[in-house]
Amino acid sequence: MELILQNIWVVAILPLFSFLFIIIGQKGFVHLEKKISMYLTVGVTFLGWIFSVFALIYAIQNQGNPFQENFVWMYSGSLTFSMGYLIDELSSVMLFMVTSISLLIQIYSHSYMKEDPSYHRFFAYLSFFNFAMIGLVLSSNLFQTYIFWELVGLASYLLIGFWYKKNSASKAAQKAFLVNRIGDFGLLLGIMGFLFLSYNFWFYEADVLLGFSSLKQATEVALVSTSSKGFFVVAFLMFLGPVAKSAQFPLHVWLPDAMEAPTPVSALIHAATMVAAGVFLTARLYPIFILSPVLMQLIAYVGAITALLAACMALVQYDIKKALAYSTCSQLGYMFLALGVGAYSAGMFHLLIHAYVKALLFLCAGAVIHSLSSQQDMRYMGGLRKQMPVVAYTYLIGCLSLSGIFLSGFSSKEQILSGILASGNMFLFYIALFTAGLSAFYIFRTYFMVFEGKYKGESQVEPVSKVMSVPLIVLAVPSAVLGVLLSWCFDDFVSFGFHTENHFVFLPLISIVIALFSVWLASIFYWDKKKLIDTELVKLPLKSLHRLFVEKFFIDWFYDKILNKIYAKAAYVLSKFDRFVVDASIDITFQSPVAAGKLLNIVQHKKIGAYILVSVFLLVLLCGFIMSILNLIV
Amino acid sequence: MFDVTLIHYLFLSAVLFCVGLLGVIVSRHLLRVLISVEFMLNAVNINFVAFSNYNDLIRLDGHIMAIFVMAIGVCELAIGLAILILVFRKTHSVDADGEYIEEEKWS
Known about the structure:
The structure holds two protein chains of two kinds. Chain A is mostly helical. Chain A has helices spanning about 1-5, 10-25, 35-60, 90-110, 120-140, 140-160, 165-195, 200-205, 215-225, 230-245, 255, 265-270, 275-285, 285-290, 295-315, 320-340, 345-370, 390-405, 410-425, 425-450, 465-485, 490-495, 505-525, 535-540, 545-550, 555-600, 610-634; strands at about 65-75, 80-85. Chain A contains 27 helices and two strands. In chain A, helix 4 (about 90-110) runs antiparallel to helix 5 (about 120-140) and helix 20 (about 425-450) runs parallel beside helix 23 (about 505-525). Chain A is globular. By secondary structure, chain B is mainly α. Chain B has a domain at about 30-90.
């Protein structure tokens, strides 16, 4: 046990080696044998999963007594930066979640990407992502977290732009990268500001700079050393990182575009693990955030707004992956809402459940897209339940779980709702309840459009391979029962010192009734068999609202205008300044010696004879001069 | 009878030297340049021998120096010719002014 925990860094390092092995050998020794990449990546992840089980067992046995080890990475003046790993309840749960989902998705990708010429590159990037994500989860201090935070961003960028020859894919990758840059920069500034505020504590009392285990004391020091406003600014800057990474309200625009990535990537990175890293970091930084009540309010409201807006946008999407992407956004908003109102363990619980559920939904969507030869538009699907029953039933399990009808999602959603209710903010509670209804509606909308009714597409439906079905079935199990199994013990396990015991008796009933009502509503709109109302009829009276949803609340439009009108103009002016002031001064500096050289060039006309003549003439002159002087002396 | 004095030798040497110098200056063929250099060396040799003869008949410093100069001149000529052949093979030209470094472009 000790041995495994001490060597748990292997879990993070091995994927890096497999990445290097594949990326170096992809043109050479592993070129023809696809199985090498696959077995290497899957084997490494499987090893990580075994380690994570041990870590989880350790964390269960030693609650409140995290295992950590650090070693010094570099000295910089009086600062000592260390790298290390910390295994506590939070990181062991995350590690287990990341490795298990990663393992299943890698197996699935083997079948999904079989035809792709860049198969090896794909697995190399998956390995790289695994390295970054596990490093992020295990990291013991903020400094190390920041490094891996950037690395997962890089992995996400590489995988969104995986089909880089497609213009939209490379554009989406750039968009994701740039939007994340805002958050990452905020996070960096926040970390530096926090270090600045609590420097004395880290310098005199703590052994690990910015270590998570002593974050609480450091926060108290920081709070004393500045005003509450200054502390709020620092905490807010730190919060910007999770906002961008988890696609929250002002910076959520990159996530739907990120669906240009291959579907396994959407499932792994943009649904289950990387976007949840924002929630994870918020949970890690909870000791800081909780001391700024304004920021906690802000977190809750950002989460609520995102949950509502994204759910609204998901209602009108016809691209199945985009609908799921908006759903991810909305559910992440839910988690932030929970964290913001103080329902810490409910938020983390929802993170865990949602990761499995959304990975399952995305993989099902991927199976559908794969067998319809890359058709993503739901208007050309329908009735696929008969051709691919496994996918349909697992998708249905995912839908039920996501909308919170009895399966896993029910318990996590119910915990969040009761957490919000316990905080006493009724406005947020109604938003959350309304959003829960919306999520049930949009997710069953996709189900009815894809799997029920009759087939409306033209392309041949190919059968789903076994390699793809097995991960779906395996993922369906935690999606269905994990929440039920863990609902009674999870908030003891991962908690932040307090519990939300306030149980409102009718709450489960209300949420289930709302969800069932939404499902019924979705069925009368989109289930061909039970269709009562044509969607076009509803669109007419709600035309402006529909337009608002389709245009994504004009947020993209707004950013586009800002970038094109203001930013581009400013950049133009600055470029002129650069051209005519900065460059010009350099031009003058280097043109003047050139001009002087040209002047001297007149004498040099490339005739050796003339040079000799001149030098002999001068020599004679010199001799004469010296002799006349000698004469004078003598 | 016409008396040959030191000044005549020196005059011959000066004329020979100037002819060699002129050859170096005006000729563009590298072989001619080499021959002209030999002219100049021989002019110097004449100087050495003449001074040696007229100043001190017993010691033969100047003569020995002349032999040194000849030996070195032969070595130099051999190497010079070898270089010349290599240059010709490389550039197909033995023009002294033909080859020069291109002026570097800055902008």
